[in-house]
Amino acid sequence: MTDSKNATHSVRHTARRLAIRRHTQRKHFHFYSRWSNWTFVQNMSALPIRWRAEHWILGGVALLLTALVGIVIPTWANATRHESDPTPYTTLNIELPQLPPGSEADPAIGGYGVAGDAEPEWRIVAVRAGQSLSDIFREQGFGPNDLQRALDSQGDASPLRRIRPGQEFAFAPGPDGDLAAMRFERDDATRVVLRFGADGVSETTEDRAVERRTRVAHGVVTRSLFYAGEQAGLSDAMVLKLANAFGYDIDFAQDLREGDSFSVIYDDVYREGEHLRDGDIIAATFINQGKRYTAVRYTNASGETLFYNEAGRPLRKSFLRTPVEFTRISSVFSTGRMHPVLGYMRAHKGVDYAAPTGTPIRAAGNGKITFRGWSSGYGNFITIQHNSTITTAYGHMSRFANVKVGQNVSQGQTIGYVGMTGLATGPHLHYEFRVSGQHRNPLTVTLPIEEALPAAQLAQFKLKTAPMLARLKTIDGLQYARAGN
After folding, report:
1. Among its keywords, does the record have Methyltransferase (predicted)?
2. How far out from the chain centre does Cα 415 lie?
3. Rounded (5°) CA angle 267-299-471
4. Across residues 70-80, what is the average pLDDT?
5. What topology does CATH give the domain 328-440?
6. Does the model's pTM come out above 0.70?
7. In whole angstroms, what is the distance from residue 187 CA to residue 164 CA?
8. 8 Å CB contact between 267 and 468
9. What CA–CA distance (Å, rounded) separates 142 from 404?
10. How many whole angstroms from its chain centre is CA 171?
11. How far is residue 46's CA from residue 430's CA, in Å, rounded to a whole number?
């Protein structure tokens, strides 16, 4: 039974295979009919001399193989070729000539300029706001005795006592952790190195190359003076110097207008090729509401450096127009004003400058403090007598500076800080200007002006300032021409 099934299966399989073959032959009849009897040598003598497509294909393959063999074999042969031995070289030892008798080698070559001394591994520290040198010594792990030794080693210790944010000090600890050396800048051009030893503190100084590079800038006020300065390439500090130069003639809080312009010649301080700090304004012009102001820096015969106008008259007035950096004027001079605390009409005999609590208040001019204390309504109050007729007064201070009654103060000196003591609804300075006991409006009162240079100094002034004034006029002329185009 099994044999019969297997035979039947074999017969079916054979029949299926034959059927597939017939189907394939019928489907590919044209291919088989074309290629089944093809040969390279069939009846070649009887055929005409011509190439068929098959010959072109096989010929192309043969040429490709020939080209590949011609390229690969020489390349492989070069890769396996051994180079000949390199040319031998001979090394000779040549003795250097002897130094002339009595001469010595320079100990600074290959060293730090001091024979036998290795350069310390300095730890550089930048002063932060509010830090003292004592704080820095403590942070670096050095005691007050080290600080005192450093101070005692200096005839003038002011560079160590009066430090400023951003100033750098360098310290080098010894093998045992004690202070071995200290480095600081005495001034822009002098570096001081102190070395601490058992027998005392030794000092060496190093001169550093300092140069001033002159710059020129021009700006037009659009949004603000600081924005105009930024567009002109000035730092904020230089913009403040520009404002201070013209601060006696222009109230930058009230008088500034869009379209005002300035031209300024200033310098930057570089030390050993690196920018150290902003320098000073040398000369400048400021056009405010169509009026042109000029400031040129000049040191007079007394050694005092001030800004002068073209005629040789100091821009500095005997009094500051505004003795505080304020944010706004909260109340003007008035003979009748509704008092914000008392609630009834009352004369306001000064100007109120709103400013943040703690803003420094400056003396408007040189004079003597005649009152310092509490005054009803004014809170913490100071009055300054400037001459036989003029007195200024300052009220609502949060606290006083280190000044006392009878003390002479100079223009711009800090005498107190903005607050809201007394009858006040917010922090501000109440400022009064009195002439022969009569109150005057501080914003409009005519301020006394400084005397011009004497005739003998005036000729020297004009000789020295003429090049800068001419350069300013050239700058203004170029800017005017560009604006016209």
Report:
1. no
2. 32
3. 45
4. 57
5. Glucose Permease (Domain IIA) (2.70.70)
6. no
7. 13
8. no
9. 38
10. 26
11. 129
Q: Please give the class, per CATH, of domain 209-317+450-485.
A: alpha beta
Closest to 270 (Cα-Cα) out of 279, 262, 261: 279
Tell me the fold of 123-207.
Nuclear Transport Factor 2; Chain: A, (3.10.450)
Closest by CA position to 235, among listed 297, 280, 299:
280
In this structure, what are the phi and psi dihedrals at residue 300, rounded to the nearest 5 degrees?
-80, 180
Residue 53: pLDDT above 80?
Answer: no
Q: Whose CA is closest to 261, among 4, 483, 111, 37?
A: 483
By the 10 Å C-beta count (0-12 exposed, 13-18 middle, 19+ buried), 258 is classed as exposed
Contacts of residue 107, defined as CB under 8 A and 6 or more positions apart, other chains included, come to 114, 115, 116
Name residue 218's beta-bridge partners: 263
Asked if residues 196 and 182 have their Cβ atoms less than 8 Å apart, the reply is yes
| Fold agreement (209-317+450-485, 328-440) | no
Residue type, 181: A
Q: Which residue has the higher pLDDT, 313 or 89?
A: 313
pLDDT tens figures, 442-455: 888 888 777 788 88
**Residue among 372, 357, 370 nearest 324 (CA):** 357
